[in-house]
Amino acid sequence: MRILGIDPGYAIVGYGVVDYIRGQCKLVGYGAVTTPAGMDFSARLKSIYLDMTQIIKKYQPDEMGIEKLFFNTNEKTAIDVAQARGVTVLPAILEGIPIYEYTPLQVKCSIVGYGRAEKKQVQEMTRTMLKLPHIIKPDDTADAVAIAITHALSVNTRKVLGKLEQS
Q1: pTM, entire model
Q2: Annotated catalytic sites, by residue?
Q3: How far is CA 60 from CA 2, 96, 116, 133, in A?
Q4: Which DSSP string do the residues of 122-144 spell out, in sequence order?
Q5: CB 63 within 8 A of CB 97
Q6: For the chain, which end, N or C, has fewer CB atoms within 10 Å of the first or last residue's CB respectively?
Q7: Type and span of the H or E element at 7
């Protein structure tokens, strides 16, 4: 199964692609969609949509995992990120790719085993799990790869539970 992980935003959208085969994750690709600060917001949304369309065409994911939005302060930022998130997932929706949401707490628990883990701990464990020589940069991209791994582990858990229910 090929999984596209997404860390949404409007300045930077991190993405990571992993193949999940026989209980193992293999990194296929990763990167970031970026838009400059001075760019008109509508143009930013269009750019994100077009880039995500190309990423989906290139990697042909079976499923997508994306960070669930949570805001407790700036309403303007929340609305802008929510709009960007919408155009980020739209190409997947149009292609019929199932989308699953994960909170930062779920990602930390899945990758590190501790919900209050620090970003560096998640990055180091992601590096270790994928047997990489270095930590993935930038942070948004590292987060997206961790989200993809979280989804892979979630898929495995659902399969195991499904088999237990059948017995």
Answers
A1: 0.92
A2: 7, 67, 140
A3: 8, 11, 33, 26
A4: HHHHHHHHTT-SS--SSHHHHHH
A5: yes
A6: C
A7: strand 2-7
Q: Strand 12-21: give its sheet, edge to edge.
A: 24-34, 12-21, 2-7, 63-67, 99-102
**Rg for the chain, CA atoms, rounded:** 16
- The C-alpha atoms of residue 14 and residue 48 are separated, in whole angstroms, by 11
* Helix (H) and strand (E) counts in the chain: 5, 5
**Whole-number Cα distances in Å, 56 to 62, 89, 93, 122:** 10, 10, 11, 25
Residue identified by tokens 């990055």 is 123
Tens-of-pLDDT digits for all 167 residues of the chain? 999 999 999 999 999 999 999 889 999 999 999 999 999 999 999 999 999 999 999 999 999 999 998 766 677 788 999 999 999 999 999 999 999 999 999 999 999 999 999 999 999 999 999 999 999 999 999 999 999 999 999 986 655 445 556 65
Q: Which two structure tokens, joined as six digits, stand for 12?
A: 């930077």
